[in-house]
Structures are given as structure tokens and as C-alpha cells.
Automatic annotation (TrEMBL):
<dbReference type="InterPro" id="IPR006680">
    <property type="entry name" value="Amidohydro-rel"/>
</dbReference>
<dbReference type="GO" id="GO:0016810">
    <property type="term" value="F:hydrolase activity, acting on carbon-nitrogen (but not peptide) bonds"/>
</dbReference>
<dbReference type="InterPro" id="IPR032466">
    <property type="entry name" value="Metal_Hydrolase"/>
</dbReference>
<feature type="domain" description="Amidohydrolase-related">
    <location>
        <begin position="55"/>
        <end position="436"/>
    </location>
</feature>
<dbReference type="Pfam" id="PF01979">
    <property type="entry name" value="Amidohydro_1"/>
</dbReference>
<dbReference type="InterPro" id="IPR050287">
    <property type="entry name" value="MTA/SAH_deaminase"/>
</dbReference>
<protein>
    <submittedName>
        <fullName>5-methylthioadenosine/S-adenosylhomocysteine deaminase</fullName>
    </submittedName>
</protein>
<keyword id="KW-0378">Hydrolase</keyword>
<dbReference type="InterPro" id="IPR011059">
    <property type="entry name" value="Metal-dep_hydrolase_composite"/>
</dbReference>
<comment type="similarity">
    <text>Belongs to the metallo-dependent hydrolases superfamily. ATZ/TRZ family.</text>
</comment>
């Protein structure tokens, strides 16, 4: 049965109207938009949604998150990435998480995402000590049950973790180094076999689930693994999704390990192309930015996470001017600590106003919204399907009430969306032509029962994880020394992190 939205204010973010709101109708047949325009005929038997006083816009796209952190939501603060990872991505002591806990953990992400207007997410899923096919299946099942669109991965690294951190061998005691050396990462063939099995099982499920390849970062993966994974990504037309220069430590890593920046290292390996999506890109040089633009890569700007971890501010205007596709992401659910993309848009719209006094270079609300819709879809290689309201595209959309405090007195709707709205005006969320949220309630699952089940399981999990934290605390003073040393290094790039002004030239 078709759905007809009549007389709404429409923000299409694509096609002829782009970011200019207009009044019109939308006809949805099956999972796709059949027609958009003014005074369209209402098909017989169609489900009618009156659009007067409503805004219809594309669903928001979270282009980079880690659902594995959802069990640590609200747990950590005032730690930079290198120390924070000791507890959220522990080196020692982690054991395989039960599939039911992964399902519930993923549901927490799906529920909050959908209720706040996210219709599509890219989940780079890490499991310690390594991910199994059935563990990934539990996350996929949760997203499938909730009704969200998701691109999921098997996050992988195959190098000794200490070899990915510059100077760590100088600071980490040999007994701890020996413990790390006992860990056995997957081989290239083992990961490729896992990826092929996951792709065959999950890619295309329900018309909403996709699989992608996600080597963690160039310093954490062997050349053999990255190049083999890249070949599969190109063959399957899925993203090659990775992390590059999130922190100043990582800015130091390329020159320290390879004698060149990590972006140049990636380019020299043939791994920079339009299918490459890079999370963060904070500590990039002008030459890096030119390389990225020439290659046509996407980056995901995780502005709230980068603030919470003190990582810096990505040079978004320079990246956009170079032709880089810039999407927005929440990043991990304990480095943010939420997948709410209205929050991310708000932060993005504000933060870049303090990076330069040249106000003509500040981001506009239209640019921020584009990053959270069509650019996000482009980063996941699904922009021909979603990201804007256009005839033939999937019906992933939001219906918001314009008669709310957030839209009063209703001046520029784009500014209201970026600076005033927080998701509370959402009445309906549609994914793949199906209403999955109605008046704040998920239609496909029992939210209260799922949350109660997870709450009941948390005391046991927290007791286990407290032991993991104790085991990894032994690394903290040594990683602290690495962090301080790297933040005293002059890269010739300023990202509003003044660590060299905080500490003396040499750490005692």
C-alpha cells in the first residue's frame, strides 16, 4: 500500500531543490520514493499523512561509530585517546563477549539512533580479543530487528599493538612487551575468509544491511592485509574504512615509523581512492589534504569525540576546498557518549567558527546538513540510494513537527535544524519505506524490555570489566610518557591543542 505525504515543508538535500525548503507532496511506493512535487494526485487506498505544519527531510546519517563501546557509555572522562583505549579497547585480559550481550549492546545504539533521527549508520565493530562470525551476526540481527539501515564491519588489526605506537618500545617494560607479544592477531587469509563469509551472509539483508572492509589504521595493519582487503573492497564496491591521524601521537607516527605522513604512506601503497573513507583526519598537512582531494576520498568528521579526547579539530574548510567529501560521525559510544547526530551537527556548526577569524570560511548550516545526509551516504557508497529525497531513492526520511519550541519563531529552517533542534520535534522516522518510530516509540521492538534485560546483565559485566581495567592500568604511565613526548613534537600543524605549552620541553 502506498504512502502519501500531503502539503509538507520538504527539505530534499538533493535534486533540483537541494537545501531550499519548499511545500509539496511525496508519494512512497514500497521502499522507494515514487514522486515529489506540488498538488500530486492521491492514489486510491494510499496511507495519508497530512504534512501541514510538518517538515520532511532525509534521515540523518552517522558515518562512523563503534557500537562496541556502548557498554562503557558514561564511564570515562579526561583521558586522551592513547590512554582511553587501554580501558575501552584493552590490550590484555579481554574475553569474548556473549552474543546476547552484543545484541543488546547494538540495540542500545539502534534505539537511540532511530529515536533521534538517524536512519543509517556505519558501525566499525571491534571485538576483543578478535571478532567471530556469530558475534557480528548478533549485531546485524539487532539492527535488522530494529529496522535501521546499517553498514557493518569486522574491524581488524594484525600487527603487535606496541609497534603501532611510536617510542612505546622505549617506555613499556619488557615484561609487559612480552605479554603483548603472546597475543595472536588474525592472519591475512583468516581475515579474508571471515570477510567473505560475512559478506555472503549479511550484505543486502532486508535491503538495509551492508558489509564493509575495515582495517583499523595503516600503522596497525600490515601492508599485505591492507592491500588484500582493498582489492576485495573494490571488487565488492564497499568502503575501505579506516582511521588516520586522529591524534597528535598519530601525526608523529607516520614520520617516526615510515619517514612520511600516514596519508602519503597510504597513497604510496595505492590505498587512496573514492572508495576510501577515513575517520578523523585531524593532523593532516597541506600536502596530505592535496593528496586526499586528488584521490577523491571521504573523511568522517567526529567533532564531539575529537573534543572529548582532546584530539584536535580537523581542517574541514581546507578539506572541502580540496574536494574531499566530508561526512559526520558520532564515533564511539564512550568517546562521545551518544550516537545523536543533531548534537554532532550543532557542535560542527559552532566549533569551526573559532578556528579562524575569517568568518567567510565558517561552515554554513547547509554545509553541515549536507555532511550529515548526502555526504554521509557518499562515505558509505550508498549515495545513489539514500541521503536525499529524490525520485527513485529509498524512502529514508524524518517527519518533524514545526509547531515546537525548537522551530519557534521559525526563521531559517536550516539554522533551526543545526542550532535549535535536538530530535525532540521528530514525529515519525521512516526507513526503507517503513515507519520505524512513531511519536517517540519504536514500532518493531519492545524497547523497555530490551533495556531492562541489559540493565540486569550489567553488574556481572562491570565486575568482569573492572578486572580488565586493572590489568591494563599497568600500561598507563608508559603510554602517558609517549603521549607527552609526541605532544611536544612540532609538526608545523596547529589544531588548537597546546600540549607543548602545558608541559616543559622535556618530560621529567
Amino acid at each position: 500500500m502506498p504512502t502519501f505525504i500531503r502539503g509538507a515543508t520538504i527539505l530534499a538535500m538533493g535534486g533540483r531543490h537541494q537545501s531550499t525548503p519548499f511545500t509539496g507532496d511525496i508519494l512512497i511506493v514500497g521502499d522507494r520514493i515514487e514522486a515529489i512535487g506540488a498538488n500530486l494526485p492521491v492514489p486510491e487506498g494510499a496511507t495519508l499523512i497530512e504534512g501541514a505544519g510538518k517538515l520532511v527531510m532525509p534521515g540523518l546519517i552517522n558515518a562512523h561509530l563503534h557500537s562496541g563501546e556502548a557498554l562503557f557509555k558514561g564511564r570515562y572522562d579526561n583521558l586522551p585517546l592513547e590512554l582511553w583505549m587501554l580501558y575501552s579497547y584493552p590490550i590484555l585480559g579481554a574475553k569474548a563477549l556473549a552474543e546476547r550481550m552484543i545484541y543488546l549492546r547494538s540495540m542500545v545504539v539502534a534505539i537511540e539512533s532511530l529515536k533521534t533521527g538517524v536512519t543509517s549508520l556505519t558501525d566499525d565493530i571491534f571485538e576483543a580479543p578478535r571478532q567471530s562470525f556469530s558475534q557480528l551476526g548478533a549485531a546485524v540481527q539487532a539492527y535488522d530487528d530494529a529496522g535501521i539501515r546499517a553498514t557493518v564491519s569486522g574491524h581488524v588489526m594484525d600487527r603487535d599493538f606496541l609497534d603501532s605506537i611510536p617510542f612505546s618500545r622505549e617506555y613499556v617494560p619488557t615484561d609487559l612487551q612480552a605479554e603483548v607479544a603472546k597475543l595472536t592477531p588474525p592472519t591475512t587469509e583468516e581475515y579474508l575468509d571471515f570477510a567473505r563469509e560475512a559478506y555472503a551472509a549479511f550484505h543486502g539483508r532486508s535491503g538495509r544491511i551492508r558489509f564493509m572492509l575495515a582495517p583499523s589504521a595503516p600503522q596497525r595493519c600490515t601492508v599485505e592485509l591492507m592491500q588484500a582487503v582493498n582489492e576485495l573492497a573494490l571488487e565488492w564496491k564497499v568502503p575501505f574504512h579506516t582511521h588516520i591521524v586522529e591524534t597528535k601521537v598519530q601525526g608523529v607516527t607516520g614520520p617516526a615509523l615510515y619517514g612520511k605522513t600516514l596519508m602519503r604512506y597510504m597513497a604510496d601503497l595505492g590505498l587512496m581512492h573514492p572508495g576510501t573513507t577515513i575517520a578523523h583526519s585531524v593532523w593532516v598537512t597541506p600536502d596530505d589534504i592535496a593528496l586526499m582531494g586528488e584521490a577523491g576520498v571521504s573523511i568522517v568528521h567526529n567533532i564531539i569525540s575529537n573534543q572529548k579526547l582532546g584530539s584536535g579539530i580537523a581542517p574541514v574548510r581546507d578539506l572541502l576546498d580540496a574536494g574531499v567529501n566530508v561526512a559526520l560521525g558520532s564515533d564511539g559510544i564512550c568517546s562521545n557518549d551518544t550516537p545523536r547526530m543533531f548534537d554532532v551537527m550543532h557542535a560542527c556548526g559552532l566549533i569551526h567558527k573559532v578556528t579562524t577569524p575569517d568568518y567567510k570560511k565558517w561552515l554554513s548550516a547547509a554545509e553541515v546538513l549536507h555532511a550529515c545526509t548526502l555526504a554521509g551516504a557518499r562515505s558509505a557508497l550508498i549515495d545513489r540510494e539514500v541521503g536525499s529525497l529524490e525520485v527513485g531513492k529509498k524512502a529514508d526520511l524524518l517527519v518533524l513537527d514545526l509547531n515546537t519550541v525548537s522551530f519557534t519563531p521559525r526563521n531559517d529552517i536550516l539554522n533551526h535544524l543545526v542550532y535549535c533542534e535536538n530530535g525532540s520535534s521528530i514525529e515519525k522516522v521512516m526507513v526503507n519505506g517503513e515507519i520505524v518510530v512513531e511519536n517517540g516509540r519504536l514500532t518493531k521492538i519492545d524497547e523497555a524490555a530490551l533495556l531492562a534485560e541489559l540493565q540486569a546483565a550489567m553488574p556481572s559485566f562491570n565486575a568482569y570489566h573492572a578486572g580488565v581495567e586493572r590489568a591494563n592500568k599497568a600500561f598507563e604511565p608508559h603510554f602517558d610518557a609517549v603521549y607527552r613526548r609526541c605532544n611536544q613534537t612540532d609538526l608545523g600543524i596547529h589544531r588548537l591543542i597546546g600540549a607543548s605549552d602545558i608541559w616543559p620541553a622535556k618530560a621529567s
